[in-house]
Amino acid sequence: MSNLFYKPEGAWIGDLIPFYKDGTFRLFYLHDWRENKKIHGEGTSWFELRTSDFVHYEEKGEMLKHGSVSEQDMNCYTGSIIEAEGEYHLYYTGLNPHPEFVEDGVPLQCIMHAVSTDMESWRKIPEDTFYSDGIQYERHDWRDPFVFWNEEAGEYWMLLAARNKEGPSRRRGSIGLCASKDLKKWEIRKPFWDPKMYVTHECPDLFRIGEWWYLVYSTFSDRFVTHYRMSKSLSGPWTAPRNDAFDARAFYAAKTWSDGNKRYAFGWDPSKENEDDYADWEWAGNLVVHEVVQEPDGSLTVRIPETVSHYFAKKQAAVWGSRLGDWKESEGRISTGANETFSCISAGSMPEVCKISTRLSFSEGTRSCGIMLRASEDLDEAYYIRLEPIHNRLVIDMWPRRVKGEAQWHIDGDRPHAVELEVPIELQAGTAYDITIVVENSVCVVYLADQVAMTTRLYNLKTGNWGCFVQEGQAQFEQASISIPN
User: Fold this and answer.
1) Dist CA 294 CA 288 (whole Å)
2) Contact status, residue 63 vs residue 129, Cβ threshold 8 Å
3) What does R_g of the chain's alpha carbons equal in angstroms?
4) How far apart are CA 441 and CA 5, in angstroms?
5) CA–CA dist 334, 216 (Å, integer)
6) Under a CB-based contact definition with an 8 Å cutoff, are residues 343 and 324 in contact?
7) Which of the four pLDDT bands, split at 50, 70 and 90, describes residue 156?
8) Are the C-beta atoms of residues 246 and 433 closer than 8 Å to each other?
9) Which among 106, 168, 433, 455 would be 20 to 30 A from 264, CA to CA?
């Protein structure tokens, strides 16, 4: 079925473990029953999803079944798959919160192994299970194994989300390293990367494009986000580009894979409690896929997958309607000057599933401009996809902003935009920027200038119009359109 931002029936998508085979992306994922655990019981399994276009998905169901309450892998958490030695090898994290698997009040984590000849059925190998040594690494953070063949060293390497035994408690996070000759016995070595910046580095991933290596990981220390670092050697140094993230708060635990031509990042857009824009983010959500592109300087940018863009085949130009301020229309273009004020204009009704596109540019000194989503008829409520040249960033906002007080919801003037929903991008006056926004029900993904992406949720405003806005400045919008699937 067509489901751009996939979630399983009655459940949610957690961390993705991608693999590409025979023209199809095999997307293994942590299947979260969440509110339905009372029906299905404890435990997390790997399920599988298949797609060749990121538009149509085939759910294959449970592929790596979790263990019982008396087994270490009652929860089968994140890992990786490698084809080697004539088989497919699946490495995963085993965690059981019950007392017999707890040490010092915290559940132990370990690395576990399963094999398959066809990727259809998997045989666990319990004797290959191993834990941290408890000497240089803690035993409670030892997870998310990523295995690859290190040609230079002539051995298999495993990267892990680990924590050092020594150091400030919130800065012990490291990417642990193990090595093996046979994919069964692993030697624990010093950290692959030890920056002393985070609590831990979740879901490590590594790949190479040309002369550059890329190290991908996710953190929750200062903010929830998927980062990357780059180096021309596996021994480092691992340097950070100006924008070191694929997205913002609502795209987490991303791992990447290539079809041999293009590379994609697979993450999840978390849901929010009670489907409320102002509530807390939850673990797991809907699948979101970005195409990852290497720039001439080696840095990475993200853009909308081509197949997703082409899915929206029915295109309609903007139908300009109600407005604030003075707007000037010409063929394929609309502009306004709002040097001391705010101007906005409705562009027509916005379906639940759609792609909005425009090319916008602004004059020197403009404070902000962008696209409105689900705006009310009186233009008093809307979501705002806002470019802020003064801050060189893209943000997502909502008007009016509200928080829940002791008695009722009230307007919150303390937040300049949605918390953690911002990405940096150099914004220059007189430059045209292409913006593409894909919305499917509550999931919204924004792509700007084929450089950055930002994912969010749209819960509280269910329907409305889309449109354009400018605040304290001048801007023009060209080829503004909305598209829906055939």
Assistant:
1) 20
2) no
3) 24
4) 9
5) 41
6) yes
7) very high
8) no
9) 433
Q: How confident is the model at residue 403, as a pLDDT?
A: 60
* 313-484 is a CATH 2.60.40.2310 domain: no
Place of tokens 């001048």: 474
Q: List Cα–Cα distances, 105 to 87, 98, 134, 243, 358, in angstroms.
A: 38, 10, 15, 38, 54
Which helix (H) or strand (E) segment holds residue 476: the answer is strand 465-484
| Sign of torsion over alpha carbons 453, 272, 228, 73 | negative
HSE-up of residue 76 (Cα within 13 Å, Cβ side): 25
Nearest CA among 400, 399, 449, 442 for reference residue 424: 449
Helical H segments across 104-160, by residue range: none
Where residue 36 falls among pLDDT bands split at 50, 70, 90?
Answer: confident
Distance of alpha carbon 426 from alpha carbon 113, whole angstroms: 45
- Residue 192 is predicted with a pLDDT of 98
Residue with the bigger pLDDT between 164 and 1: it is 164
Dump pLDDT digits (tens) for 202-248.
999 999 999 999 999 999 987 889 999 999 999 999 999 999 999 99
The answer to whether residues 342 and 470 touch, using CB atoms and an 8 Å cutoff, is yes
CA separation, residue 171 to residues 66, 221, 222, 439 (Å) = 32, 9, 11, 38
Residue 45 has pLDDT above 80, yes or no: yes
Distances (CA, A) of 182 to 116, 154, 168, 178, 187: 16, 11, 36, 12, 11
What number of residues does the chain have? Answer: 486
Amino acid at 185: K
| The pLDDT of residue 390 | 95
Question: With the C-alpha atoms ordered 68, 69, 72, 77, is the resulting torsion angle positive or negative?
Answer: positive
What does the pLDDT read at residue 416?
67
Contacts of 41 (CB under 8 A, 6+ apart): none
**281 neighbors 406 (Cβ within 8 angstroms):** no
Give percent helix, percent strand, percent coil of the chain, each to the nearest 5. 5, 55, 35
The single-letter code of the amino acid at 246 is F
Q: What is the pLDDT of residue 331?
A: 87
- DSSP track, 318-384: -----EES-EEEETTEEEEEEEEEEEEEEEEE--SEEEEEEEEEE-TT--EEEEEEEE-TTS-SEEE
Tokens, residue 294: 């290497």
Domain ranges of the chain: 12-309, 313-484
DSSP letter, residue 100: G
At residue 79, the pLDDT reads 98
Report the 10 Å Cβ neighbour count for 261.
5
How high is the pLDDT of residue 40?
83
In this prediction the pTM is 0.96
DSSP category for residue 408: S
Joined together, the tokens standing for residue 413 give 């003037």
Could you confirm whether domain 12-309 is CATH 2.60.200.30? no
CB of 228 within 8 A of CB of 216?
A: yes
